[in-house]
Amino acid sequence: MASVALSEAEKVYIVHGVQEDLRVDGRGCEDYRCVEVETDVVSNTSGSARVKLGHTDILVGVKAEMGTPKLERPNEGYLEFFVDCSANATPEFEGRGGDDLGTEIANTLYRIFNNKSSVDLKSLCISPREHCWVLYVDVLLLECGGNLFDAISIAVKAALFNTRIPRVRVLEDEEGSKDIELSDDPYDCIRLSVENVPCIVTLCKIGYRHVVDATLQEEACSLASLLVSVTSKGVVTCMRKVGKGSLDPESIFEMMETGKRMGKVLHTSLQSVLQKEESLGPKRQKVGFLG
Amino acid sequence: MALEMRLPVARKPLSESLGREAKKHLVVPGDTITTDTGFMRGHGTYMGEEKLIASVAGSVERVNKLICVKALKTRYNGEVGDIVVGRITERRRSAEDELAMRGFLQEGDLISAEVQAVFSDGAVSLHTRSLKYGKLGQGVLVQVSPSLVKRQKTHFHDLPCGASLILGNNGFIWIYPTSEHKDEDAGGFTANLEPVSLADREVISRLRNCIVSLVTQRIMLYDTSILYCYEASLPHQIKDILKPEIMEEIVIETRQRLLEQEG
């Protein structure tokens, strides 16, 4: 993870502040920074989203391509994740420096989506054992300002909401050979249901309290963090501990409860923003990257 | 517990919100400023083929016969006598150094110092030969562009609201609680690690958010502008200051007060 150097006195200041529920930028322990979400920013993808959380900037693009289903799941399509930590984000990612973090984030994404209910994979099947939709989800880290996992999971959910997969029909010939026909109307597409797509809430343990949405400085003061993946109904799909320090089982329970609460709020806010954006229609003014 | 999600809003061009009539003359490196040879060249310009060419990207400033280009965003260029706040990233590894300095300064520590000399390659040499310089204790560091820190007589300010500032010329701004006892026998190399009171913390967090808002709106930073911004932000909660609409409101009020004070 990108890190900043801090002096001992600065760390002490941050830790004492968290314990008094007043962080450096005036937030409480359970406050997020202002989040900006925009979808459909990349035109040649099936779906895309950009999320800005303080100084963290994430761009996600989803491309739907046809492929063969996996052998053990012949009736389902699947998702492939790739995370690119670009050198734009921080000089530490120069060359191959960002690869470790990239694979860590991609593995976490695979884990949280590795259950039956997150995405309806059966709807991605075209013909069993032969053709299915494969969704390649590419995450690009533009700027790293702390709390990467939360921002990435919000962006992935928004991009999947925005994804439009072309409707196809399988035609069978007299000889039995199958042909796949794409619909003529470019707007005739299927959308994914993202109701059960989980979001990650990262809780960093600082001192004897935990905070959500830590900045880079706060992450440098925290020895252990808990990543909780929560669905909109408050169900925890996966949990992971990161960091060198240890966590008391009591605090793990407390942090998980906080994670569930924050997760539900995160989902309702994201849902309302996505609905609002959709209601503005195709004529909405896109801000994009030069706004 | 608060979480706010919103759709992004396109930024308005700055000149609209400022209400300036004359547009600034913006140049990029290589642009011709003027073909009139009667002008003296200032910073950011050079003479080539009978015309004045810009060497940095910025706005052209003209004072009588002197033309210079003020860069909008630069790397810090050291001048002798500048106050800087810096973080120790690397140190010389020699035996004397180990014995003497490691007790006082570690890697990652913040210090305030003055520029003693500038080398031809741009490197600066610093000194802390005064009791007011030295290691910095508890507080908050804000990193801004060096071009936004106004050059003043003094860069150490004790604000009436209860916190103190060091406005480093290199763009590193240090906000710390004003300590009650000012006797610095140790010469400022031992840090006080006792918890800072909640009231002081609120002042420091508010100042930090005010500085961040001023920087977003490209206002020059000096003690008066920061103080006016602090006073304008008092009706709002500290964490709300960073919301775009409240930030704009506070900065417009600050700008008005600064214009009234000048004119």
From TrEMBL, chain A:
GO molecular function, one term: mRNA 3'-UTR AU-rich region binding
Record keyword Cytoplasm present: yes
UniProt family annotation: Belongs to the RNase PH family.
Keyword flag RNA-binding: yes
One GO CC term on file: nuclear exosome (RNase complex)
Organism: Carlito syrichta (Philippine tarsier)
Record's protein name: Exosome component 7
Compartment list: Cytoplasm; Nucleus, Nucleolus
Subunit details: Component of the RNA exosome core complex (Exo-9), composed of EXOSC1, EXOSC2, EXOSC3, EXOSC4, EXOSC5, EXOSC6, EXOSC7, EXOSC8 and EXOSC9; within the complex interacts with EXOSC2 and EXOSC4. The catalytically inactive RNA exosome core complex (Exo-9) associates with the catalytic subunit EXOSC10/RRP6. Exo-9 may associate with DIS3 to form the nucleolar exosome complex, or DIS3L to form the cytoplasmic exosome complex. Exo-9 is formed by a hexameric base ring consisting of the heterodimers EXOSC4-EXOSC9, EXOSC5-EXOSC8 and EXOSC6-EXOSC7, and a cap ring consisting of EXOSC1, EXOSC2 and EXOSC3.
Major subcellular site: cytoplasm
Annotated CDD domains: RNase_PH_RRP42 (cd11367)
Gene Ontology biological-process entries: exonucleolytic trimming to generate mature 3'-end of 5.8S rRNA from tricistronic rRNA transcript (SSU-rRNA, 5.8S rRNA, LSU-rRNA); nuclear mRNA surveillance; nuclear polyadenylation-dependent rRNA catabolic process; rRNA catabolic process; TRAMP-dependent tRNA surveillance pathway; U1 snRNA 3'-end processing; U4 snRNA 3'-end processing; U5 snRNA 3'-end processing
Keywords: Acetylation, Cytoplasm, Exosome, Nucleus, RNA-binding, rRNA processing
Pfam families to which the protein is assigned, alphabetical: RNase_PH, RNase_PH_C
Domain Exoribonuclease phosphorolytic residues, every copy: 32-166, 196-261
Coiled coil regions in record: none
TrEMBL record, chain B:
Entry keywords, A to Z: Exosome, RNA-binding, rRNA processing
GO-annotated molecular function: RNA binding
GO terms classed as biological process: CUT catabolic process; exonucleolytic trimming to generate mature 3'-end of 5.8S rRNA from tricistronic rRNA transcript (SSU-rRNA, 5.8S rRNA, LSU-rRNA); nuclear polyadenylation-dependent rRNA catabolic process; poly(A)-dependent snoRNA 3'-end processing; TRAMP-dependent tRNA surveillance pathway; U4 snRNA 3'-end processing
Main subcellular location of this protein, as a coarse class: nucleus
CDD domains xrefs: KH-I_Rrp4_eukar, S1_Rrp4
Domain Exosome complex component N-terminal: 26-63
Domain (K Homology) ranges: 139-180
Superkingdom classification of source: Eukaryota
PANTHER family: EXOSOME COMPLEX COMPONENT RRP4, PNAS-3 RELATED
Protein's UniProt name: Exosome complex component RRP4 isoform X2
Native organism: Carlito syrichta
